[in-house]
Q: What sequence folds into this?
């Protein structure tokens, strides 16, 4: 069904039903309002000269008008690039230029996060959603120029033009042909994939910033199915539980750091709300420590569903709670395509041995304006990788060991730091941890753990020795940290991805930093 007929149909059949709610501001948008405003926005974009295949950029907080702008792009065959509001001005300008956006949507809040005049030099149309500013069109005035009964032309459907998080360098854009770009939710007859079957009874809780790929795609898919999205403007664990009860949430998406914050609530706080409507608690984006997932399944029951994928969509694995309990630590079996684990020479490795993870049979992609990075993502057989290290077990379940970019090379030996991180996270004093390679004159790199504690006052040589001893009791001493630093907090994105490059860079910039 064409996207145009979907929105028109929902506006006709359930005009006063809410398409999405905002938590905690209480704002809501009905289907009639979403259809009308997104149509006017689409017409305004056409009036500004945009045509099928052109692009827009969206630099907003979790704003009530966010998704009407995305729907407008879908309705007239445009690409839209959503940009993190936490990026600096030069990073924002790089993405806007690289994605060839012709219109930039922003707000007073996102502009205030940048230095004055940061975006005025961009040779594009700039639209401000609230207030007035020289060099920007006011969004409401921009829409008011368009008749409420404007008719849109028939076009292919638009789609996202997403950029990677840039945790290992400059963000990379992934752009697909419009004709098959929206096949995010590939389902099958497999019962364990029913968590993707969205319909008008779906109530989806969106807990993350809208600019990330997963929230964009899940919310758009929920609304496409006629379901209701409940959008958190900022994550708070107690508010999330309250929202599940209040709206009868059926599907919710999480990242492991959110689970950690939920588990830190008191027993009384956890028991305060009725969570019985939630059938699917979906998580991804970062590795989930086994102990954390065990506790969540014990609390919520076997409703956790995990998937492993990437913006590039070259492949995807997933598993339900029962599968995970039989294969703890796994990220599942392929939903489509086939997984291959290869050594550095491109040879297939047997079950249990770690190597670079490749997918065959998935969708093809290219990094925008970067053929060299595209080439590096493929091997000579046409298989593609997200750049992760892992292995499969005898039953074909995939396990992630680490990112290829995080590999520590010490004395010629490859060390994958996630193994040590998993052990250290099992210690009750540890809240968060990053294991990185730091300079070593003899071996090139040595292993260091950077640890954030639940109780910072416990930091010191005794606890450092205890943590190192714990590692050595569980894994080879070669993989264990030789030293530990305690820090107040580790840098993570809002989707829970550890910015390990930032942690590591501080040690390579200052090789004389003192360890505890």
A:
């Amino acid at each position: 069904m064409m996207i145009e007929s979907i929105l028109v149909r929902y506006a006709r059949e359930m005009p006063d039903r809410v398409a999405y709610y905002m938590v905690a501001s209480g704002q809501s948008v009905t289907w009639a309002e979403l259809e009308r405003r997104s149509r006017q926005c689409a017409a305004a974009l056409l009036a500004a000269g945009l045509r099928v295949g052109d692009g827009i950029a969206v630099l907003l907080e979790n704003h009530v008008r966010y998704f009407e702008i995305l729907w407008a792009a879908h309705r007239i065959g445009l690409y839209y690039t959503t940009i993190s509001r936490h990026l600096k001005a030069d990073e924002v300008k790089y993405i806007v230029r690289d994605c060839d956006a012709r219109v930039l949507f922003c707000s007073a809040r996102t502009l205030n996060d940048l230095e004055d005049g940061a975006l005025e030099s961009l040779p594009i149309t700039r639209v401000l959603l609230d207030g007035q500013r020289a060099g920007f069109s006011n969004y409401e005035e921009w829409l008011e120029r368009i008749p409420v009964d404007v008719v849109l032309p028939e076009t292919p459907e638009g789609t996202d033009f997403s950029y990677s998080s840039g945790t290992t360098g400059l963000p990379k854009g992934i752009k697909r042909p419009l004709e098959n770009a929206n096949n995010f939710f590939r389902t099958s007859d497999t019962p364990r994939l029913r968590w993707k079957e969205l319909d008008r009874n779906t109530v989806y809780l969106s807990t993350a910033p809208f600019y990330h790929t997963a929230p964009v795609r899940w919310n758009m898919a929920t609304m496409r199915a006629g379901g209701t999205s409940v959008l958190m403007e900022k994550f708070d664990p107690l508010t999330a539980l309250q929202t599940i009860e209040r709206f009868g949430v059926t599907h919710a998406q999480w990242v492991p750091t959110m689970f950690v914050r939920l588990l830190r609530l008191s027993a009384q706080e956890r028991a305060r709300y009725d969570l019985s409507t939630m059938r699917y608690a979906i998580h991804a984006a970062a590795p989930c420590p086994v102990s954390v997932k065990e506790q969540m399944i014990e609390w919520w029951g076997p409703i956790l569903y995990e998937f492993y994928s990437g913006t590039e969509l070259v492949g995807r694995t997933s598993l339900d709670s029962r599968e995970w309990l039989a294969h703890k630590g796994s990220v599942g079996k392929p939903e489509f395509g086939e997984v291959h684990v290869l050594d550095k020479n491109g040879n297939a490795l047997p079950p249990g041995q770690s190597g670079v993870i490749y997918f065959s049979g998935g969708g093809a992609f290219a990094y925008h304006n970067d053929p060299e990075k595209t080439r590096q993502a493929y091997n000579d057989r046409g298989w593609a990788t997200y750049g992760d290290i892992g292995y499969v077990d005898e039953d074909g379940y995939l396990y992630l060991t680490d990112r290829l970019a995080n590999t520590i090379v010490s004395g010629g030996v490859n060390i994958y730091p996630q193994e040590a991180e998993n052990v250290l996270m099992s210690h009750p004093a540890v809240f968060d941890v990053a294991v990185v390679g730091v300079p070593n004159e003899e071996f090139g790199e040595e292993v260091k753990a950077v640890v954030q504690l639940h109780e910072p006052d416990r930091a010191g040589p005794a606890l450092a020795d205890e943590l190192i001893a714990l590692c050595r009791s569980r894994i080879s001493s070669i993989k264990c940290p030789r030293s530990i630093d305690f820090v107040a907090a580790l840098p993570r994105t809002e989707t829970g991805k550890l910015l390990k490059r930032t942690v590591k860079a501080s040690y390579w910039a200052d090789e004389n930093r003192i360890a505890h």
Remarks:
- The chain has 16 helices and 26 strands.
- The CA atoms of residues 234 and 472 lie 40 Å apart.
- Residues 31-47 form the longest helix (17 residues).
- Residues 511-516 have pLDDT under 50 and may be disordered.
